[in-house]
Amino acid sequence: MSGTQLSIGQRKDEGYYANERPDLVAMLPRPLGRVLDVGCGAGTVGRQLRSEGAERLVGVEPDPAAAAAAAGSYDEVLDTTVENALDSLGGPFDTVLCYDVLEHLVDPWTVLRRLHAIAAPGGRLQVSVPNARHLSLAWDLFVRGTFGYAEWGHRDNTHLRWFTRRDLISSVSEAGWEILGVSHNPLSAPRRLLERLTLGRSSEFLVFQWYVLAMRSPGRGSRQFGSVRT
């Protein structure tokens, strides 16, 4: 999983840093331009971005081994936390990625604001986070009597923050970004049918991840790309 900030002494399996995110990359507006990938892991997403025409790739990854692996796919990789990297990142960036990052941060709201400051006018931000309202969490809490932390996945034991759909929209918007769209991880056919039958309301409890695409407004009179139901 890209975008992890682990506690001291922890080391995840190598596969944790090698997730592919083709569904997210496919949603990004083109051209990608200069890309900042926060939590770039071992560089798997970077290779996808390069093949899609990214002009320049800069990654941030606090795990030394994963950062070393990513170096072959990026023009520059900063082997540190995003909080430390922000002081040395030049920018401006046309595309900023935070895949599975915000939930690992002590203060994701400040990070979102500072990323906004180094984005180019019209630059895009794409974020993915676990869904705090997923039914499995309610089952574990009320039936099993446990939060259910695990080594990876929805209740990864390095997660510090939790976001519902509304929380994520609010956090990104309050950091100055203009929301372009909200979506979620792909659903199975039965769950897609249920989503249609419930006019999307079932998604709040069935999706594991929420995705947000946002933009740094280029100024007054900019074209509106879409609206979001909150």
Q: CA-to-CA gap between the ends?
A: 28 Å
Taking pLDDT < 50 over at least 5 consecutive residues as the criterion, the unreliable ranges are 1-11, 220-230
Spatial strand arrangement across the major sheet: 3-2-1-4-5-7-6
Please, what is the oligomeric state? single chain
Mean pLDDT across the residues is: 86
Count of DSSP-assigned helices? 9
Q: Can you summarize the main beta sheet? A: 7 strands, mixed
What is the CATH topology? Answer: Rossmann fold
- The CATH superfamily turns out to be Vaccinia Virus protein VP39
What does this protein look like?
With 230 residues, this protein is an alpha/beta fold. It has one domain: Vaccinia Virus protein VP39 (Rossmann fold, 3-Layer(aba) Sandwich), CATH 3.40.50. The protein has 9 helices and 7 strands, in the order H-E-H-E-H-E-H-E-H-E-H-H-E-H-H-E. The protein has a 7-stranded mixed beta sheet with strand order 3-2-1-4-5-7-6, with helices on both faces. Strand 1, helix 2 and strand 2 (56-60) form a beta-alpha-beta unit. The protein is globular. Mean pLDDT is 86; it is low at 1-11 and 220-230.
